[in-house]
Each structure stands twice: as C-alpha cells, then as structure tokens.
Amino acid sequence: MILNRETLINLVLAALLLAVPLAANALGQPFYITLATRIAILALAATGLNLALGLGGLVSFGHAAFFGLGGYVAGILAAHAFSGDPLLFGLSGTKQMWVIWIVAVVLSALVGLAIGAISLRTSGVYFIMITLAFAQMVYYFAISWPPYGGEDGLSILVRNQFPGVNTMRPLTFFLICYVILLLGVGLFALIRASRFGSALQAARQNEVRVATVGIEPYRIRLTGFVISAMITGLAGALFADLNRFVSPSMLSWHMSGELIVLIILGGTGRLFGPLAGAALYVAFEYALGGLTERWQFFLGLILLAVVLFARGGLLGLLAGKARHG
After folding, report:
1. What residues contact residue 303 under an 8 Å CB cut-off, 6+ apart?
2. What number of other Cβ atoms are within 10 A of residue 147's Cβ?
3. Is 164 helix (H, G, I), strand (E, B) or coil?
4. Which residues are within 8 A (CB) of 232 and not within 5 positions of it... i.e. 6 or more apart?
5. Transmembrane stretches, by residue range (predicted)?
6. pLDDT, tens only, 186-226
7. Contact at 8 Å (CB) between 287 and 298?
C-alpha cells in the first residue's frame, strides 16, 4: 500500500506532536509539554468546527459557546465537588474527568440542537450573524453570573481526576488530550467517508440537487452541527482543566474567530488541517508574543497570504489538492 503525500504529512504531524512533549519531559522542560497540550486541545476544538465548516460549509461564529460551555461544566462540577454544595435537584459535583466529559458533550449537544434548529433556517451572512448572536448571549449570561465568578472567571483548584493516572503530571494530561484528539480526528474521517458525510458535502455544494434525491438538507446540516458542537464542547472541558481556570473569554466571539483561523491556516476540510493550524498558531504566539504585544498583526499578514496564495492552507501547500476517500 502506497501512502499519498497528505497521509504521510498527517502521520508526520501526529508523530511530531507526540515526540515534542516526550523529549521535553526527558529534558525536564514541562513548559513545552503544556504548549503541546494546548495545541492538541485547540486542534480538537477546531476539528469539531471543521466538521461544520469544512464539510458542511457552515461558517459558524458561535462555536465559542460550546467551547465555553464545556469549560464551565468542568469548572462548576469541580467547584461543587470541592465545596460539597449540591447542584440542581440535589446532584453533587464531581472531579472525575470522564463524568465531566459526558456532561459537557450532552450539554453541548442540547445547546447545539437549539442554536442549530434556529440558525440553520437562514444561510450566508445571516447564519454567521445569528450564530454570533447566540454565542454572545451565552457570553453575557456568564459574565453576569456572580456565583461562578462573573467577569473574573472560575478557578479549578486542583486538576480533575482520571482513573488510574496522575493528571497533575503534565505528560500524563498531554497523553489524555492526545488520545482524545486522535479519536476526534478518527471520527471526522469516518464521517467524511460515510454516506452522511457525502450528503453533508453535497448539501454544501448544491442543496437543491440533494433535496431532489429525497434527502432533506436541513436535517443533514443540523445533525452535522450538533456533532460539531459536541466535539468542541469536549475540547472546552479539557482546556479548562489545562489552565485550571474557566474564563468568560472562552465564550467570546474572539474564540470563535480563532478556531476559524486555525482551520484556514491548516486547510479547510483537511483531516489534520486543524492540527497544522493549531501548531502554527501556538508556535507563532510563543515565538512573537514575547517580542511584541502586536504579534496578531503578523499573524494577520500570514492569514492574508494563505487566503491569497495558498487557499488550501498549510496542508494544501504541502500536499496539493485534497483527496477524500
């Protein structure tokens, strides 16, 4: 079996993301492990959005809502577990990551269903604006919620637990995030290769033709949007545990824009495009962030160059035209 160029590049990216923290751990440099973990989590969040944007053509500026919801689920459940105060209906908090992940995914699915059911009645710039409006509603609700920090955010005193491992060790937490990222990418690949994925892409290209063969574009897009929200919400829960802090900025429209930038940088619709974009973004932030506060200006120049001269993103530049199948 001969691997095509994009597959080889994908394998190299996955191997590099694993090799860097392993080397950093051997050299006693936990900071670089944290950077790699941040890349993995942002790549997972962008993979979720890539399902809606890359396959479905849905330019959502509301995915920060799901990212932030996942984060607040982690923070609120951990806070109640620490204090012992009950949640709604007498339910207790928890420090178990797997429970937090399930709650984050389910809540993101429900909110995604509600937002998608309304937003997908529109298209184009109207879809962009209504998803942005919903995300900002969630954002302003969070900053006006004093019991959970309001504008100041919510601290997670000790990182949540995962059975059998010490999540306080940077390398251990990275490996958890890395495995979840690979599972997320694998799910994206399965969806893209499935009949559902083909229908989602067809609805992006010509919804009238999709409707004429008996497939309802609205339902296909809504399903894709909800799955996309679930993946991004899971990433938000991991991000909160990485920083041990939940901030309303996770819900801001800037976060939605950042996820879109990651996808464009890496390659829209590409399997490992979000990972490539996240790695480039975090590396650029680290390299120039210490030199100037206006490092985003140079990122903007790179983004402009990608849009004008490398419309397939970094993977498109390196691997050529995308091959799905």
Report:
1. 261, 264, 265
2. 9
3. coil
4. 44, 45, 48, 49, 63, 66, 67, 70, 108, 259
5. 38-58, 65-83, 98-118, 125-143, 171-191, 222-240, 260-284, 296-319
6. 999 999 999 999 999 999 888 888 888 888 899 999 999 99
7. no
